[in-house]
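ugh finaly. both done.
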Amino acid sequence: MAHLIVAIDPGVNGGIVWSADGDPVECAKMPGSDVEVCQLLADLSCKAKDVSLYLEEPPLFAGKNIPGSAIGKLMWNTGVLYGAAVAMGWKIHRIRPAIWQKTHTCGTKGELTTTQWKNKLKARAAELFPSVDVTLWNADALLIFDSATRGVIN
């Protein structure tokens, strides 16, 4: 049976990206409810006996530019995703944003606005995945997926 790689940006406007053994990459927006999240992961679990999840970890310090409500939802999504993946016996790799971002040629956010930085990441994802409709919701997950398939994150 196939090996499935799943990469997830758990943000409210995040995405889930997956592919089994070199099949075309598929993408989905982060589902709106916990039940929908678990159902999507259960459906993915049926595609392969061996699943590796690369789950972006929430930042430990949000700073003043990210509202508490956004961090709360991000943390909640991460917990639901993590728990569902544990229940299904997936191999889980928790990845900090700085780690996967270093594996791409985008530099660092530095003085860029969040919008400029996100657009830079989106452009990089579009270069790597020309056959995928790259959007702001799936760009980070695509870049995490790329890093995972190249073996430069663990």
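ok and the 2nd:
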Amino acid sequence: MTTILVTASGAPGAARLFRALRENGEREVRLVGVDASERSIGRHLCDAFHLVPPGSCPEYPDALLELVERERVDVVLPQSSHDLPHLAARRDEFPVPVLVSGSETVRRSNDKAETYELLHRIGVPAPAFRRVTGAPGVEAAARELGYPDRPVCFKPVFSSGSRGFRILDPTIDRSHQLLYERPGAVAMRLEEALDLLPDDGLDLLVMELATGDERTVDGIADGRGVVLGHPKTREAMRAGLAMYFVTLDAPELDALAERIVAELGIEWFFNIQLVGDQVIEVNPRISTIVHQEDLNLPWLAVRRALGEISDDELRALRARVRPGRSVLRFFDQVEFDG
């Protein structure tokens, strides 16, 4: 039996990840879920569950180290961007593999401004951007990038997913938003954003608004290149999450991922997001995987961590990726007393 500790076990993709690890077709696994909230689906779907400090807390790795010993864990699989910095800094202290890149890779990937600078430097298409501080900086950068003649967008330099992302669009119909859209619309006018933002103390990234179809490349890397992965579409957004995916035959995206992975030195899981032809996000962690009965990326990463499969053997599995395989995400629930 293999025991896997999965962090952020209440994350949107956690339930499917748990199922993929159990449906590995080789052996029984024991799943240990951890989360900062007791209202985590990991409490109900894992074999053991523990409350831990938030991943952003310095004491987070100590809590996981204690659980690794107590639960006889074989592999630690982080899910959340918030878990990565402290785990990356102390991964060598763990007696078992922790599927996380090194500290510098995590820092550079999480700093979106530095990521964009890197992408421009290596010739990968990415939005024009300005790194600024506070409301005055946002206003100046937005106008430099074309506002109000064209919409722009901004987000915190350090953020995860769509948190803090807003589109600045002077043509937005606020009345329509109020009456017909769900709370949490991402578009607003510049003047409204300036009223809400502090004058100083907050690093923000103001960007050209990328447009076009959304695609991603997901996979496993070795610090020098992609070992195994697949491109896919990213569609039907709901509450900031994509709800529909289709795998693609897109060699140009595979080649782009190779360049980014090599430049950042990404190890283990990665997720590269594009809008149109522009890369907008690089995440050194697991994201939504398109699973196949003959290609189970999370389980293959576990086997790789345990030394049971080589990188050459994983590369040979690239031919198994089936273009056109689709994923439809949906909401589910569990019932319990107490």
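summary for the 2nd one i guess: DSSP finds twelve helices and 16 strands in the chain.
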